[in-house]
Specification:
- Helix content is about 20%, strand content about 35%.
- By secondary structure, the chain is an alpha+beta fold.
- The strands form 6 sheets. A 9-stranded antiparallel sheet has the order 6-7-8-9-18-13-12-11-16. Strands 4-10-17-14-15 form a 5-stranded antiparallel sheet, with no helix packed on it.
- Strand 11 and strand 12 form a beta hairpin.
- Helix 5 runs antiparallel to helix 6.
- The mean pLDDT is about 95.
């Protein structure tokens, strides 16, 4: 939670793995300086859980593909905290640790748990007994989306448990940003719907600038519904390959354990001894934050979309993004030469290919 108070830390508390493409985290706001990472510790409500975030940055951005579980009458987006799908929460019912996040949505008695692999996010929702359980997908949602437009987005309901689509921003991190996704539910929904520009449509696919969808379930007490979602900068099939390669099953606890093991491997490269518990928490959290970015940008097959908008292939390395060289070049990259020597050549090759493919 260090750095999440919204003043200047601009960190997110959600789940990710070292240098991961997916940062699956709660968003409590989308506008203003305190929203750079989407989360402000002082907020009392959660908008939902989106799949990519910046950490420590001085610019609000990303926050794509927001999912939110709800119970009761279906409510769609609203800026007013007392309306829409936004939910109150309490920090005493919130847990954030490396590779795992949990919160209870107190007004609907739903427990949300999140974990990730490099390119995929896994949600586990524990519902109460109800005939009106829903999962809302909001493609309009994004951090600072009101200022950044114009937007393009698309959604396709592929079958009774799979959806796919994309979202594009004209002015994102370093220019135009476009991501694709594929999401699968652990069991079929009873019914589903799509809303475009505030109007429900009958089709199973839509493109536009303001799209939401919802998926309806009947649940028993403490029944769990899981959603696994993968992203790609290239296309839907790239996201599907990422999902198949990194998240073939539904074992949430095993995925969370593997994410934690990746962080143990990274953090254990630094040994510090102290009797001051607060110092140790601060120090190792700083090591954690230092290994969040640059973030993976290429798919499992090496493809990625470059600054020229074209698809390229990273051969023999992982292409990455969300660089902040005006600060990181002073100390962070020298630190990587010690803590991440096996990744450093990939970072250098990324910068070289970025230069070669820039318009």
């Amino acid at each position: 939670m260090i750095g999440t108070d919204g003043k200047s830390g601009h960190t997110f508390p959600g789940a990710t793995v070292p240098f991961g493409m997916v940062q699956l985290s709660p968003d409590t706001r989308t506008d203003g300086w305190a929203a750079c990472a989407g989360y402000d510790y002082n907020d009392k409500t959660i908008l939902g859980f989106s799949h990519n975030h910046l950490s420590g940055a001085g610019i609000p951005d990303l926050g794509f593909f927001l999912l939110m579980p709800t119970v009761g009458e279906l409510k769609l987006p609203a800026d007013n905290p007392s309306e829409g799908y936004r939910a109150p929460f309490s920090h005493d019912q919130e847990v954030a640790r490396a590779g795992y996040y949990r919160v209870n949505l107190t007004d609907r008695n739903v427990k949300v748990e999140l974990t990730t692999t490099t390119r995929t996010g896994l949600h586990r929702y524990t519902f109460p007994k109800t005939d009106q359980a829903h999962v809302v997908l909001d493609l309009l949602h994004g951090i600072d989306y009101k200022r950044r437009g114009p937007l393009e987005m698309g959604l396709q309901i592929e079958n009774d448990h799979t959806i796919s689509g994309f979202r594009k921003e004209a002015k994102g991190w370093g220019g135009e940003i476009k991501y694709y996704f594929v999401a699968e539910f652990s069991r079929p929904w009873m019914s589903a719907g799509i809303q475009s520009d505030g109007q429900q449509i009958e089709a199973k696919e839509a493109e536009g600038k303001n799209i939401q969808a919802w998926f309806d379930f009947k649940t028993q007490d403490r029944e769990q519904i899981l959603v696994r979602l993968a992203i790609s900068s290239v296309d839907v099939e790239g996201a599907r390959k990422n999902l198949q390669a990194e998240m073939p099953g539904w074992d949430f606890d095993t995925v969370a354990k593997a994410a934690r093991a990746q962080w143990e491997q990274v953090v254990s490269r630094v040994a510090v001894e102290s009797t001051d518990k607060m110092f140790l928490e601060n120090f190792y959290t700083a090591v954690y934050h230092a290994n969040l970015a640059p973030t993976t940008h290429s798919d499992v097959d090496g493809r990625y979309r470059g600054p020229d908008g074209r698809v390229h292939v990273a051969k023999g390395f992982t292409y990455s993004t969300t660089y902040s060289l005006w600060d990181a070049m002073r100390a962070t990259f020298p630190l990587y030469s010690i803590l991440q020597p096996e990744r450093l050549n990939g970072f250098i090759k990324t910068m070289m290919q970025h230069y070669e493919t820039s318009p």
